[in-house]
Amino acid sequence: MPGYNQCVLVQHGEYFTLYCKLGKVSVKSGQKIETGTKLGTLETDGNNSTLHFQLWKGTDKQDPEKWLTK
Hints:
Shape: globular
Oligomer: single chain
Strand content: over 45%
């Protein structure tokens, strides 16, 4: 994905989450993961490290604020 560096896509039934701007990926394609599994490390850009996160249901992008606990 241009501009996002390395990404990890995690399937959750009919939903999936996308984690991008990773400097290193720690999981393999097709690997089953559990809560707490380290997916990778963030790409560093000077003093900034920013994770790009998306939540999708099929082909419909979702608002992650409805799903994340504050």
